Amino acid sequence: MTSFIAFLVAVAPGALLGFALPPGRYRWVAWAASPALTLGLIAVAMAWLRPLGLPDGAMAVLVAELVLAGAAVALSRLVGRGLVEDADDRPRSLRSRLRLPSVRPRPADIAGLAVPTVIAAGYGWLIVGRLAAPPGWDAMNHGYLSRRILDTGTTAITAACSSGSTDTVTSCEFYPLAVNVAWAQATQLSGGPMSTVMTTWALLVGPFALAAGIYACVRAFGGRPLVAAAAATAPVFVGPMWTSLLSGRITEQAAPCLAGGLALLIALAVRGRHPVRTGLLAGLGGAGIVMTHSYDVLFIGVLAIGLIVGLRERLRWRTVGAAAAAMVIAGIGAIAPLLGTIAGAGGERLTEKPQLLGRWGEAVEFWLTDPQRYILLGFPGPGTADVAPWPLSVRIALWITVACLLASPLALVLRQLRWARPWLAAGLAITLVGIVTISSNAALVQSLAALWYGDPARPWSMIFPIYGVATVAGAVVLGLGLRRLLALLGVRTAALRWPARAVPPVAAIAAAVVLSLALLAAVPSSWHPLRGEVKRRAPVGDSYARAFEWLDAQVQPGQVVAYDRHRQFMTWSYADHGTPLLFGIPPSRTAVAENWEERWRAWRWLVNNADAPPAGCAVRRLDIGYVVVGSANYPGWRAHYRQSRLDRSDRLTLVHRVDGIRIYQVTDAGRVCAGPAG
């Protein structure tokens, strides 16, 4: 039930806005972009409720979403056509305007959307399912932010982005995100764990948006349902869809999944018959992306340009102007009160130095010729050293994928593959951006790289759908070439005489390639390495839930629990159970660094570190009641205590243990306060 409610919260508000558009492909495209539209509605509420003096908690935002969506639909039905819209589908009577005509999809389209979604959810279950919580350290940050929204009853940065549960200070300038609000809403409505809600986004919401967006794009360009379904399925296992979860960035996985639907909505606004209504929705969706994973706007914009160029509708400059104005008004107006905050988030925009400065050959290798970029599931990623030998299934899949990718550029000249051109063009453009930003330290280039902190893996994950779509396009090219070769050789096969109403042989070849890759990816030796890395970065087993439930029952009002921050996954005790914790979001400004350091002084004192000065006064002021440690450690994170010294500490006493998790209670010796220094 928790997963169902999380999916409904993510899709339903945005889907309501689809009724602001007429039946047919406009409404279908809006529904394909519904998660992005939901995030846009959340962004509006986050930005405007507080300045208007209205409640801005999670449920208040949800009510505002539904009210805004309902008002938009009602207004679209009541207002007649605009100055730049066609009138052929506008009813005249008030009753007919308010009526919402039913829309019945074709069975082939239902199957073409359902199959990729189910396949994606299945692979997600293999890789990240069955865990106690999502993998990655950043997932714990976002779980903390989302729980703070529930505890404080507001989406304000000053409340959510704090240093801890007591004596809080504002620790950053940009968070929470729109998706944090969606997670808080689903958690409050369902009563389930925050971790389950967040995992639902990785397993269901993102894959649904990916399948719907790509399928809609291919169908809008005349692609057959089978080819569209193949293109929507391939990115699940061709490309790094799941590797972004290793660091816990569910937003980094979700935003590229939203790209196809939103880009097509933008293209239809510019070249369609309803530029104002469609443009307003497109601008709203863009605002939702900015408030979720801002730099993906770059990829969405480039893809949208390609779709605009490729659509066959007549280009009218009056329509272009109306659509552009509508998108700008909706996009900027939606988040106007937050624009200064977004632009000034300096701490969150620190950029790493270019990793391959001046080494253009290595940059091209990293972005184009490294075979690890094209292996199944994108793991291990390009540039990774000391890679174990690939199993046969991965090597076979690599040969198939590379052959298709090498053939895919011919889609730029083949009429049957016009649906692939925008995706290939967008992939080429972002690849060039990636090569330049990893190699050059020019001011303008690094200003662009600052959008993703200079991390070269992020633009790779930003365009991950490209790899699957291009592979399917290459499969179609190879199929066309094979058919042409057989025809030149005079071979008369049953495939060449296939009836027009049957599945075309080229579409069948594309589906066969995708099916082959899917089966190869399903071989245990193909996905076990990624699954193993995911498990290393996630809490595994029910011992966490049992320990957290016991701890939550013992903590007294006002007390907090100290732990070695994210290193042993203890942050989930707060995200899932609401147990107040000592550590929250580390500060990005030196002005509040002392508050953060005081928490670490209290921790070092309690765990009996050798160099720890007395900090009993800090323990009292922060009201630390318990210390919890575990045996499972996040890889690469340095420990801030030694178990042997902790066991000898008279400042703590062991009161409960669940498997490898130990819970200590603070003693009077740990709270002794000799004076201001202690």
From TrEMBL:
The chain crosses the membrane at residues 28-49, 61-80, 110-133, 201-221, 227-247, 292-311, 323-346, 396-414, 426-454, 460-482, 503-527. Keywords: Membrane, Transmembrane, Transmembrane helix. It holds the Pfam family DUF6541. This is Uncharacterized protein. The lineage of its organism: Bacteria, Bacillati, Actinomycetota, Actinomycetes, Micromonosporales.
